[in-house]
Structure formats: C-alpha cells, structure tokens
Design brief:
EamA_dom; single chain; EmrE-like; 13 helices; globular; 302 residues; membrane; transmembrane; Putative membrane protein
C-alpha cells in the first residue's frame, strides 16, 4: 500500500474516534432522543450530498449494479448508526466502540469469498488479535473488579459489526466504478432521505424546539457532523485505494483511542458523558485488550 493509504487509514480512525466521543456526549447529555439527533444530522448531509453529486456526477455508461451497491450500503450503515447511537444513550462509549470493532473478522471473510482478496496467515492472526482485544475491552467490569456481559448490548452491537462489514464489502465493489466523491454524494443523499422519512415527525420537531440550550446544541451537532462527513469521505477513499479487509481492521482500532480518551475525559470533565468506574484490575484488563489491538495492527503492517 502507498504512504497515502496509511495516512488516510489512520487519520480516518482518529477522526472517527473523536466523532464517537462527541456522539456519546450529545446522546447522553444534550439530545432529547435518538431521532432528534439523527434528524439534525440528516438535514445537514442532504445538501452536502447534493453538492457532491452535482460536482462529481456519475461516469457515463455506468450500469445499475454500482448504483444499487451505494444504495444498499447506505441503508445498512444507516441502520448500524441508529443502533450505535441508541446504545450510546446508556452505555459507556469505551464499550460501544470495541464491540463494533469486531467487524474486520466479518469483512475478511466476506472480502475473501466475494472479492477474491488474499490475506496471509500473519494478516489473519493480526485481525484475530484486533478482534480479541476489542472483546476484552468491551467486557463489563465494575468498580469492585467484578465482570459480566450485557447480552442485549452485546448482540445489538455485534449486529452493528455485521451490518458495517457487509456495507464495507459492498463499498469496495461500488468504488470500482466511480470516484469516492460521487459515491459519498449518493450515500449521503440516500441516508438523508431515510432519516427524513423516519424522523421528520411533529413530536421530534417539538422535542428539538423545547430542549435546553437549543441553538448551542444544534450548532455543535452540525460541527460534529462536518467532522463525521470528512471521516466518511476519507474512509471511502481509503477503501478505494487498498484491500477493504485491511482498511476495516485499521478503522476498527478506534477502541484504543476511545478507551484512552474516555479515561482522560472522566478525570478532566466527569459529567461530559457516561463513563464506567473501573477498579485497577479492570483497567489493567482493558489495557491488555488495547495492547492486543496494537499488536494485531503491528502484525498486519510490519
């Protein structure tokens, strides 16, 4: 892979981690509900998608297959995003992110079967380490050191991982036929239409009008969506330049950053978002999971 691929992949991961932290803050501290937050985001990406598609139209002679690929991918990722935001209302983001990071395992299998991508033993071991580390980080540990698994959150977020994996493989197919700018434009348009169809309701608008510090909350949400849109475009570009299985693995090293950031935020600004209190033993276990993620990435790229 080229140096540009590495820069894009890791930059996308860092930006996405920031977006996750801000999403957690908005969902747990500012927004009256999931649909209200999604609606504000959808209103922003609608014109953004239109501008991209006008500036970078579909190539001449393209068939319906790639266009349907974008549409299906957008539907899958929209569903995944809703599940993630719903989870962030009540669950520490440091547990949400790792569970969704299991998607490289599903991507690797799907990409090998449907795209013919060939991964060596070391790369498979690296992907396995990333997934295992994510599972350790996501385990629920309380302040006394006791452990357990929230089954509802587990299965919901594993469902997110499967949806994201399928969308990533479909993205790789569609990006063979058009630029990442065009692909992103269609993706944003489809997502915004879905959002407006399901969230543009009188009660949702009423909840937005009556929420505290409305103008500030909306402005910050739009800023976060600008950052998220940038990350999405960069992700499409990364997938277009290299193997989707490896791109997905780098993207899903995000729990490493989210874990570190949430730990820092819990000390600096305890009320910023939901953060679980951990014992030293629990923190050490999560740190071991983080090390597995880093080691997995090293196995893939060194």
């Amino acid at each position: 892979m080229s140096p540009l691929w590495f820069i894009l992949a890791f930059s996308t991961t860092i930006i996405s981690a920031l977006v996750n932290i801000l999403d957690s803050h908005f969902m747990s501290r500012r927004m009256p509900g999931t649909r209200a937050y999604i609606l504000i985001c959808g209103i922003f990406i609608l014109p953004a998608g239109g501008i991209m598609l006008i500036s970078f139209p579909l190539p001449a002679g393209i068939g319906p297959g790639p266009i349907w690929a974008v549409i299906v991918s957008a539907i899958l990722m929209s569903g995944a995003s809703v599940l993630i935001l719903q989870a962030m209302k009540n669950v520490d983001v440091a547990r949400v992110a790792p569970l969704t990071a299991t998607s490289p395992a599903f991507v690797a299998v799907l990409a090998t079967v449907f795209l013919g991508e060939d991964l060596g033993l070391r790369q498979w071991l690296g992907i396995g380490a990333v997934v295992a580390g994510a599972a350790v980080i996501s385990s629920r540990w309380d302040a006394a050191g006791g452990g357990g698994i929230n089954r509802k959150a587990l299965f919901m977020l594993l469902g997110v991982a499967v949806l994201a994996a399928a969308a990533s493989v479909i993205n790789k197919y569609g990006l063979e036929y058009m630029s990442f700018w065009t692909y992103a434009g269609i993706d944003f348009l489809v997502a915004s239409i879905l959002i407006l169809a399901f969230c543009l309701r009188r009660e949702v608008l009423s909840s937005i009008r009556t929420m505290a510090n409305r103008r500030q909350a909306i402005n910050l949400t739009v800023l976060n969506q600008v950052i998220a849109t940038t990350a999405t475009i960069m992700a499409f570009w990364t997938i277009q330049l290299g193997p989707v299985s490896l791109a997905s693995t780098v993207f899903n090293a995000k729990p490493l950053l989210v874990f570190a950031a949430s730990a820092a935020i819990s000390r600096i600004a305890p009320g910023f978002m939901i953060v679980e209190k951990l014992s030293r033993r629990s923190t050490a276990i999560k740190a071991a999971g983080t090390a597995a993620v880093v080691g997995g990435l090293a196995a893939i790229f060194i």
